[in-house]
Amino acid sequence: MIGFKVLLLSVLSLNTVSARAIDVADRNVESRATCVYHCGSVCYWQEDIDEARAQGYKYLKAGTTVGSNSYPHQYNNYEGFSFPTASPWYEFPILSSYVAYTGGSPGADRVVIDKSGNFDALITHTGASGNNFVACTKG
């Protein structure tokens, strides 16, 4: 009888742990499914933006660059966007593959940060003429 009670308590404990794990996973999927910005047809979640911003700032702070276009590099804002922070601004690729940029093709999308690593915007070449950028849309 004691063995049965121990087994029953063990099963109940595992079910409780499993239910909690599923609940946490569901909440993570739900928050991941909320698109913060669209660049063309690509949806970026907050964690993607945070990762690209942090990666770009890491290089900026170290005084190093990556890729053939030397990212991050100063963004001159020829398009006249209104950013929440003061210049200078820097652009760094944010990839539609959702991995941090470490070189190679930068794709069309960029995160814009200030000299302190603060987020300013997401911009894209998608839908822009020539080598210009257009703003990615929120939501």
From TrEMBL:
Annotated Pfam families: Ribonuclease (PF00545)
Gene3D superfamilies, per database record: Microbial ribonucleases
Any one Gene Ontology molecular-function term assigned to this protein's record: ribonuclease T1 activity
InterPro entries xrefs: N1-like, Ribonuclease/ribotoxin
Reaction(s) the record says it catalyses: [RNA] containing guanosine + H2O = an [RNA fragment]-3'-guanosine-3'-phosphate + a 5'-hydroxy-ribonucleotide-3'-[RNA fragment]
EC number: 4.6.1.24
Enzyme class: lyase
Matching PANTHER family: EXTRACELLULAR GUANYL-SPECIFIC RIBONUCLEASE RNTA (AFU_ORTHOLOGUE AFUA_4G03230)
Family, per entry: Belongs to the ribonuclease N1/T1 family.
Name of this chain's protein: ribonuclease T1
Lineage, highest ranks first: Eukaryota, Fungi, Dikarya, Ascomycota, Pezizomycotina
